[in-house]
Amino acid sequence: MAARRAEATTIRVGGRINETPDDTNSGRPVGVSADVGALGTIPCRDLDDMPAALEALLPGR
Fold first, then answer.
1. What is the pLDDT of residue 30?
2. What is the rounded CA–CA span in Å between residue 42 and residue 8?
3. pLDDT-flagged residues of the chain (< 70)
4. Residue range(s) defining the domain that contains residue 33
5. DSSP secondary structure, the chain, as one string
6. Within a domain: residue 30?
7. What CA–CA distance (Å, rounded) separates 9 from 50?
8. pLDDT for position 37
């Protein structure tokens, strides 16, 4: 919907972001916050990180 209105939308995600790689033999998940951030999201480790991430989105910042 935002694309139809030509608006920029930032997605914020929080918590531990991980996945289990297909090529693992341990079945243990690995962190992918950096990968998700490279896609244009703002990964926040916890709620304490959220205010700064939101503030950075304000006009003039």
1. 92
2. 14
3. 1-14, 61
4. 12-56
5. -TTTTT-----EEES--EE--TT-SS---EE-HHHHHHTT-EEESSGGGHHHHHHHTSTT-
6. yes
7. 16
8. 86
